[in-house]
Amino acid sequence: MSGGLQTAPDTRGHFGIFGGRFVPETLIPALDELEQEYRKAQQDPEFQREFGYYLRHYVGRPTPITYAERLSEHLGGARIYLKREDLCHTGAHKINNTLGQILLAKRMGKRRIIAETGAGQHGVATATVCARFGFECEVYMGEEDVHRQALNVFRMRLLGAKVIPVTSGTRTLKDATSEAIRDWVTNVRTTHYIIGSVVGPHPYPTIVRDFQSVIGQESRQQMLEMTGKLPDVVLACVGGGSNAMGIFYPFLNDPVRLIGVEAAGRGLDTGEHAATLATGRPGVLHGAASYLLQDEYGQVMPTHSISAGLDYPGVGPEHSYLKETGRAEYVTATDEEALEALQMLARMEGIIPALETAHAVAHAIKIAPDLPKDTTILINLSGRGDKDVDIVSRALGGLG
Amino acid sequence: MSRIAERFACLQTVGEGALVVFITAGDPSLKMTEQLIPTLAEAGADIIEVGIPFSDPLADGPTIQASTFRALQQGVTPVHVLETVARVRAQTDVPIVLMTYFNPVWQIGIERFAEQAASAGVDGVIMTDMPPDEAGEWHPVARRHGLDTIFLIAPTSTPERMRRVAQMSSGFVYCVSRTGVTGARDDLPEEVPYTLQAMRTLTDLPLCVGFGISRPEHVRAVCRVADGAVVGSAVVSLIAQEAERGEHALLESVGRFVQELKQATRRT
After folding, report:
1. Nearest-CA neighbor of A33 among A109, A94, A139, A135?
2. What residues of chain A score a pLDDT lower than 50?
3. Min Cα separation A287/chain B (Å)
4. Which residues contact A97 (CB under 8 A, 6 or more apart)?
5. How many CB pairs under 8 A join A and B?
């Protein structure tokens, strides 16, 4: 790869032309405060110690890497490894970030937490750390997602969070995010907004990436131990892109192919998809310049994916940058391919992945057979599929 | 002198505050927008902010969100809005400021948007989600086309940020009255005078206060300390409410409301 790849944003939060802070003036001082506090926390051994302590004793890190032996043999090509973020407390990688951010909120003396959620995994992870550290928690969730992810809504409520259904716009993650930003503009003095992905205004994309990069750091070391080399390919699904940035980041300067898999929904040609990097173009949504699904006048387009967590018209600015520079490749998998991959992994490895994650598995199934047997593919198994069993069972018409 | 500067100079000599009125272009229709602008001007609006509808208006409360949604349902695009302004410009000299989010401008192209806005007779532009930090590309282009760029200060703005806004704004400075989104409120926040006082030491530009200003008594209170008051959601919800009663009734009752608001800007 080129020596000129930017691995940190410039002082105004830009990765190339992407990123920045396209938000109302009211929020800029809070973003400055967050950036300063984060810089201090990074230099503070006590903060690092505390973060590490809870990652280990509360989240359950390090998560293992599992060799998907039967799947690999069945496909007859590359060897497939799974980074088991599904084994994190709460069932997905999301808690790595919420834990880091709650510790930041504590430092900043803000007692009220808000979050947006799509599939509900980030909402659950936020509600969890709020319960653990005694913060008030309100989670914005699109009304459509409230219905399709009812289990997670109940989990959040059990954890003491207030779930606010959002009825504006498309009633999914995009509108939940807008509503969370509106809340933050209003209550910025007392409230910290825990964004769930590598999106939003600077410094969020960097902070979330850094907290998630524990995934890639562990993976790097574990793959070296298990296989004696770095993986040849790293695969992750991309909605906003936090699990992908988390696993990609520590490999950016290595000779490793990085592939992000977006949701092709009912097919790219149907227009009902969420393949932002594959079919969008640069635009501004939710405070940052990045690839965006939009019409010719910049109106944001409705999206579709069977997985609520990928059903988002934007993507993290650093992914846009990695695409532009050619450092990472971005491909797509349809609803149907994700459903097939989910079943295949369930039957061959005894692991039911989240529907989001199943998109990454689907791409591995596509490419593994054509790769030599000494090639290794590492998939970020970002979350478990319990939350999706209703949707999957409906989509498959029951399993008979 | 720009139309905006001229208007403020004129208001100063007669001892009045400026009444700035916001409407969403295309709500209930572009045809009505074309009639509303001259009506607002005749009723006493000193500056008219014309909102370009955007699918994700994250600085707006429920009233303007709903209005935006109605306009988008009509298929209103930024190009339609500029065409409407161009037609209105033939009928009235009232200063017109476009209020928009950054993305529609970026997609049309900064140069092209500025050029078309200027030739349509637009006087200034406010981009709610473009703080001075992100205005590097827009600012010189706007200046070259003779467009004022109105930046916003908020109650959370630090002195350093106020200075930046003071340096980069032209026309006037938009002072956001409270932390929050647009929308009518019952009361006025107490911190407004302090923000204005701090801003006065940094600039000679007129200072207009907006967000939550919905009644004549709010306008009166604001005009005691500021150079103008911005009324948005209250007018937008009146338009929505009267739209069913037909064009004539709508124009009449919006006109009447604006007259009352304007009356409240007269300091004597």
Report:
1. A109
2. 1-2, 400
3. 8
4. A122, A125, A194, A196, A208, A211, A212, A242
5. 117
**Structural domain includes residue B27:** yes
What's the confidence (pLDDT) of residue A169?
85
Q: What is the pLDDT of residues B220-249, one digit of tens each?
A: 999 999 999 999 999 999 999 999 999 999
Q: Is residue B102 part of a domain?
A: yes
Which of B69, B82, B103, B108 should we substitute to test contact with A (largest number of A Cβ atoms within 10 Å)?
B103
Q: For the sheet with A191-193, list strands across it.
A: A162-166, A136-142, A112-117, A191-193
Closest C-alpha among B33, B32, B11, B29 to residue B20:
B11
* ipTM of this complex: 0.96
Using 50, 70 and 90 to split pLDDT, how confident is the model at B130? very high
Residue A11: its pLDDT value, please? 86
| CB pair distance less than 8 Å for B59 and A185 | yes
**Among the partner residues A186, A283, A297, nearest to B78 by beta-carbon distance:** A297
Q: A174 at the B interface (CB within 8 A)? A: yes
- In whole angstroms, give the CA distance from residue A228 to residue A236: 22
Chain B CB within 8 Å of residue A22 CB: yes
What pLDDT shows up at residue A399?
56
Is B192 a domain residue? yes
Query: B244 lies in a domain?
Result: yes
C-alpha to C-alpha distance for A221 and A68, rounded to whole angstroms:
18
Whether residue A297 contacts residue A288, with contact meaning beta carbons closer than 8 Å, is answered with no
Neighbours of A320 (CB within 10 A): 28
| Tally of domains within chain B | 1
**Domain of B53, in residue numbers:** 3-9+17-260
CA distance B56 to B127: 13
Alpha-carbon distance B177 to B154, whole Å? 7
> Per residue in B70-121, pLDDT tens?
999 999 999 999 999 999 999 999 999 999 999 999 999 999 999 999 999 9
For residue B262, give every residue at least 6 positions away whose Cβ sits within 8 Å of its Cβ, in sequence order, or none: B19, B43, B44, B45, B46
B6 is annotated as an active-site residue: no
In the numeric block, which tokens belong to residue A237? 């699904």
Q: Closest partner residue to A181 among B58, B105, B130, by Cβ?
A: B58
Nearest to A25 among B77, B106, B176 (CB): B176
Chain B residues contacting A, CB < 8 Å?
54-59, 61-62, 65, 69, 72, 77-79, 101-108, 128-131, 133-134, 151-158, 161, 165, 176, 179-181
CB count within 10 Å of CB A225 equals 9
Beta strands (DSSP E) in chain B are 18-24, 47-51, 96-100, 124-127, 148-149, 152-153, 173-176, 207-210, 228-231
Long-range contacts of range A219-226, CB-CB < 8 Å, 24 or more positions apart?
A219/A65, A219/A83, A219/A247, A219/A250, A219/A378, A219/A380, A220/A250, A220/A251, A220/A254, A222/A62, A222/A64, A222/A65, A222/A83, A223/A65, A223/A81, A223/A376, A223/A378, A226/A65, A226/A67, A226/A81
Q: Which residues of A are catalytic?
A: 94, 116, 382
CATH number at residue B139: 3.20.20.70
Point out the residue among A22, A26, A299 whose CB comes nearest to the CB of B134. Answer: A22
Place of tokens 């790769």: A371
> Which of B82, B101, B107, B233 should be substituted to probe chain A, the one whose Cβ sees the most A Cβ atoms within 10 Å?
B107
User: Residue A23 and residue B131: Cβ atoms within 8 Å?
Assistant: yes
Residue B232 has what pLDDT?
97
